[in-house]
Amino acid sequence: MGQTNSMTNFSRRIALYTDRNKRSNENILGFGDGNDLKRVITVNAPQQVKYISNRISTSKYSFLTFLPKFLFEQFRKYSNIFFLCIAILQQIPGVSPTGRYTTAVPLLMILCCAAIKEIIEDFKRHIQDGAVNNRRVLIYRYGNWLYSKWMNVRVGDIIKVADKEFFPADLIVLSSSEPHSICYIHTSNLDGETNLKVRQGLPQTSHIISSLQLKALQGTIECELPNRHLYDFAGTLKLANVAHPIPLGSDQILLRGSQLKNTGWVYGLVIYTGKETKLMMNSSSVPFKRTNVEQIANNQILLLLFLLLILCLFSTIAGEIWNYKNRVAHWYLGLTRMPDSSSAAVPNHVGYTFLTFFILFNNLIPISLQITVDLVKFIQAYFINWDKDMYDEESDIPANARTSNLNEELGQVKYIFSDKTGTLTKNVMVFKQCSIAGIMYGSGNIEKFNHFQLMQNLTNHESGGEIREFLTLLATCHTVVPEKKTDLLVDVTYQASSPDESALVAALKEMNVIFFRRTPDNVAISFMGEEEIYEILNVLEFSSDRKRMSVVVRCPDGQIKLFCKGADSVILQLLSSDDPNSGITSQHLESFAKDGLRTLCVASRVILSDEYNSWIEIYRQAATAINNRAELVAEAAEKIEKNLHLLGATGIEDKLQDQVPESISMLHKAGIKIWVLTGDKKETAVNIGYSCKLLSDQLLNLTLDEDSLEDTRRQLQDHCSSFGESLRKDNLASLVIEGKTLKFALAPPCRQDFLDLAISCKSVICCRVSPKQKAEVVELVKRSTDAITLAIGDGANDVGMIQTAHVGVGIMGREGVQAACASDYSIGQFRFLTKLLFVHGVWSYRRLCKVLLYSFYKNICLYVMELWFAVHNGFSGQILFERWTIATYNVLFTAAPPMALGLLDRCCSAETMMRFPALYKMSQNKSDFNIKIFWTWCLNAVYHSIILYFMSYAMLRHGNMAYTAGLESDAWTLLTHISIWGSIASWFLFLIIYSNFWPTIPLAPEMRGMAKYVFSSMYFWFGLILIPFTALMADVIYNCLQRTLYKTLMQEVQEKELANQDPYDLVMARQTSTVSRVAERLALLKSVFVRTRTPKMSGIVAGPYHGFAFSQEEDGVVPQNQLIRNYDTNIVKPPGL
């Protein structure tokens, strides 16, 4: 979009591909290394090159590409190719016994209907794209500020983004409302991480806080060409008033899809737009997905085509033999050609005879199949859209089927790949419980922390001193920055890179312990209305290795104290040997962990002045070391973080979306395995795993956290061998794997072992996963198993896996609409997935299977009768039925029954399907449509054709297809009755009207008076009852025997429903044996893993995992110590006008 056709732009695009291929070590183009290629952007001046626009599109088609793409997609279906060939062959004079247009016209109508359906569905995508493209942003252009649409943003523009707004393009940060051009961004839309990240503008541009200063900004930016590397960027800024180029890196880039948080505003200069943004370059084009049912049907159509060729060959040979034997006896047929025969006569050649039979039998493959299936799916999609139970009132978002082509796949899902942040969770942290001096406060069962008892004990209990110390520590040991919008302390708001720390200080505010001011040297809190100032002497930063954060403070009374908070596994090791609170606090931590809370231990100690003075020298030497600085600083911190006194622990809830644990439990009962693929750290992911019941103490919990390919391979092989015969079976086991280990596990030497181990587990959690790895994991399972996969997410980092999976589901309204725009179905919350699968998925699958089977059945039944008729007409290629009567067979006489089956039939009620997820396993196992069932229906059609033809041969009447549709229907509604009996009645009405066409309408003279002749025949009325009854007798007997001796669970539940009885005991009895077998395997596996466990082995997680509450950015552009010392909340922030 927006590209020019000039040679300049063409060269730039080739350069882009060269750079991308070079950086990914894929030398596809093979010319030049592109080292001298770069993008040059002028600041506050017109660009020398026309770059692409900022308009994005996730739709399948455009005005120009619709016809070629649509035709390509339609003629990937073998049936359409087949009928196109038939339509062409019918144009050969004297060959077609059914006329020239009896195939071409229906085929054209079918393609037109399919085109209308595709246009309607793609139009919805264009509307959603338009909602994104038409968002508004403030642009500084030609010396003025103007509000414009996102799609009008151009490379080189300077834009202003306000707090909580998304970035419309990839930007270089120039300045912000915060000190030193710092800004906070939320990148969970890109990488799934919950913590805020810090970006910082260059010192040379940080002074720009007004339009006048922007106008004076002159220079150029030279940067790398657009590429998909999210975490890499290289460029230089050349300013007119600065002598040397200024380096630019990933610390200065703000990516499209990220959101500005806790920052008043930011000025950014646009460097990449539209399809060239890193977000869009990590997205792929909308794939054309084909369902499992469609693939099976396509393959069977090929076999039917092969049988059709054999049938035509047999009929041709039989016809030639009959002609040879009867050329004298039946001389009047002209079977013997005289030398002077007219050249204009109809050809009598074996090739023409073969084509005649090929056209005669072509409808063994139903021409109306595709349009019937498409129409059924299209209306089924509206059933999903209209379902009030899947409407999210909170966000005002209904369910939306963005495509109707995959409805039946929803009923066969075996693996669900889910994002965490925004999909399972709300990314809202809430302080729920705490333990202070061995006393637990709060409850995990209430929505908000109840601090009444804590406040009472603060003044009236012997632990009051420790409570005060506990609250003071939480109010001072953090990196939060307060923001006062008024002079009232209650109006203080907080900005923090860690949502956990934000939750803690917000909870303290409710307890009247208010952190309200930060300066480079101290923090001020209001403790029960009294102002207290604590001098920050040192900040010992958090890291994933240390798993703790400490501050050394000078208290108002002059004492020096160390305040420390972190993971219990670390803090408990730093306590003094006789700490009185460690035992009871450990028990409380167990309770917090079982509730799925993120825990922190809180400890402190008093530091004497002499000790501090000695230690500070060691710390300064470490902090200024040239080599191994990080290790030396960590060692120095350990020298003072010792002999701590445990004050207590906190429990923070990462709030789940509504009914997530219940939904996951239902999905597990349905035999669906759930994999969580998240960019977040392991501790956070595992905590959520316990919260939403993906992980539990009743499972064999395995972890993989290796640092090399060889270690990963060894560990995988050990685990696989320990599973023994239970490998690749359903086991009560879970697997947690780190991102770096996953990289090795997906390598060719480990891939199969990883797959075997993972599919042996009930739940899998992959942490620190990149968007590309998410897609690779889904692709691995999709290609290596004969199972249907579903991916669900809400962020742009989920687009890859959503498009890779068989079915992609997007959640609207959490982290933008990128995932929803790329998805096949969108819903408001994760909990709606259960009804989407258990009700709409199963109903759509079973209905569509019946439509497909019935469509093939009715055509085979009818057109095989042409073969029996050929036996009586000397294989002459004559038709048994009048040509336009047979042309309307699929359109009129048998059109309603498949629609009734596809739209109205249902196996069980929605309430029953939701109550008993085990019923889902029947459709999941593809029991309603497979090769065996397909050919059983075909053979039944041949059997019925024999009965129909040879009995009708004497009684002048045929037809039982509508009766068969009624026999297969599970739910008879008023519309079902109308469609079944109406189809039969339509034949009578048609015959009455059609037999009176000629001579008023010059059509079908042979049908003149046929209705009177037929309706006056007693044989007709006798056959109307006897023939269908005889043909269907075998079907009735089979169904009776099957439902009596070999009932399926679904059929038993149906009978219970009809009898108004509760099927609970029935379903539970069917599940007991399966559950007991899985439990026996679990006991055996645990004993094997315990015997073979080694100290190195990441084999078993013994108890509840204590995930600590620290979503803090590590190794950020601004160190935590420097970050908090940059702020002085006494200074008024600039408005940026």
TrEMBL record:
Lineage: superkingdom: Eukaryota
List of catalytic residues: 419
Cell compartments where the protein resides: Cell membrane; Golgi apparatus; Membrane
Membrane topology of the entry: Multi-pass membrane protein
Gene Ontology terms, MF aspect: ATP binding; ATP hydrolysis activity; ATPase-coupled intramembrane lipid transporter activity; magnesium ion binding
P-type ATPase C-terminal domain sequence ranges: 820-960, 964-1047
Coiled coil feature spans: none
Domain annotation P-type ATPase N-terminal: ranges: 47-103
GO CC annotations on file: plasma membrane; trans-Golgi network
Residue ranges of the TM segments: 301-324, 345-365, 933-951, 972-998, 1018-1041
Residues annotated as binding Mg(2+): 419, 421, 794, 798
Cofactor(s) listed in the protein's UniProt record: Mg(2+)
Pfam families attached to this UniProt entry: Cation_ATPase (PF13246), PhoLip_ATPase_C (PF16212), PhoLip_ATPase_N (PF16209)
Gene3D superfamilies given in the database record: Calcium-transporting ATPase, cytoplasmic domain N (3.40.1110.10), Calcium-transporting ATPase, cytoplasmic transduction domain A (2.70.150.10), HAD superfamily/HAD-like (3.40.50.1000)
Enzyme Commission designation: 7.6.2.1
The keyword Phosphoprotein belongs to this UniProt entry's keyword annotation: yes
Keywords attached to this entry: ATP-binding, Cell membrane, Golgi apparatus, Magnesium, Membrane, Metal-binding, Nucleotide-binding, Phosphoprotein, Translocase, Transmembrane, Transmembrane helix
Catalytic activity field: a 1,2-diacyl-sn-glycero-3-phospho-L-serine(out) + ATP + H2O = a 1,2-diacyl-sn-glycero-3-phospho-L-serine(in) + ADP + phosphate + H(+); ATP + H2O + phospholipidSide 1 = ADP + phosphate + phospholipidSide 2
Keyword Cytoplasm: no
InterPro entries, per database record: ATPase_P-typ_cyto_dom_N (IPR023299), ATPase_P-typ_P_site (IPR018303), ATPase_P-typ_TM_dom_sf (IPR023298), ATPase_P-typ_transduc_dom_A_sf (IPR008250), HAD-like_sf (IPR036412), HAD_sf (IPR023214), P-type_ATPase_IV (IPR006539), P-type_ATPase_N (IPR032631)
Positions of ATP binding: 419-421, 501, 542, 565, 598, 678-680, 768, 774, 797-798
GO annotation terms (biological process): phospholipid translocation
Similarity field: Belongs to the cation transport ATPase (P-type) (TC 3.A.3) family. Type IV subfamily.
Full protein name: Phospholipid-transporting ATPase
